[in-house]
Write a structure and sequence with these properties.
The chain has about 300 residues and is α/β, with parallel strands linked by helices. It contains 9 helices and 8 strands.
Length: about 300
Amino acid sequence: MKSNQLKIKKSGIINNIDLFLFLLKKTIPYLTIYKIINLFKLFISKIFYIKLNTKPYFILTDTINTCNLDCKMCFTKQIHFKEKIVYSYDIEFFEDFLKKNNKTLIFIMFGCLWEPSLNKDIYKMLELCNKYKVLAFLTTNLVNCDINKLVKTQTPYIQVSISAGDKEIYKKIHGKDYFIKVQKNLADLAYIINNQKLSIYIHVKSVLQKDNENLKTIKKLRLFLKKIKINKFSLKKFQSVRNLNDNLEILPKNTNFFDKTNGIDKFSIHKKTRNYSMKYVGPDKKTSKNEALYLIESSE
């Protein structure tokens, strides 16, 4: 296969019709009159630019502020952002949050800047989402996941981040030698889901960058994913949160493989970024800004 035949699909669940239909089927049983009214008000306010009293229907959340990888393309790596103290919010805090917001909240995505599986309560949190009728999604690198516990949560959408199909390139990109472990975890996850015919969607995403742009390692990964029968594999263009010239060590030479904007000159987790705004939910309001935990609310 020629490299230019490998399609680059936009990131974002709404761009993929098969995934959209899958999640629509999952969402319908979770809809209540309150959630429908809130969605209607959000729609009206967006179309007619009317400010109405609405609440977020979709939340991105980091349950812990650390990661077990050191990926070159990560936003936190690009801006040399590292937490001095590791915080994670506990199960009591999260359940209280769900109780207060489950009337209008439809979706919650675990994992934005950090690795959610490092929170010891992550599987309980995923189960609580089922209890409070909120559809949970999980983004993970799958390094530390307990596959059996994860499957038992019945989390409908699991997005796995891996940008290489062999040990050498994996270590170059992700900074750690976990390729074999991740490959086994992914194979075990797919086997259980397929064998038990579970309604769980696995979506593997790779970020294009200098170390994988010849696509040899990407093709190896795709063959492996096809063999174990995951639902979807897609490529994401490299996105810079700095000026492009500051990311030359990561930037692909192929201009079709990266976002051609100049990047975001100043990236801050305390300001609005694109369609999301970060809201402090930390364990202690006296902690410094760089040590705080955030929920990310969709502004749409």
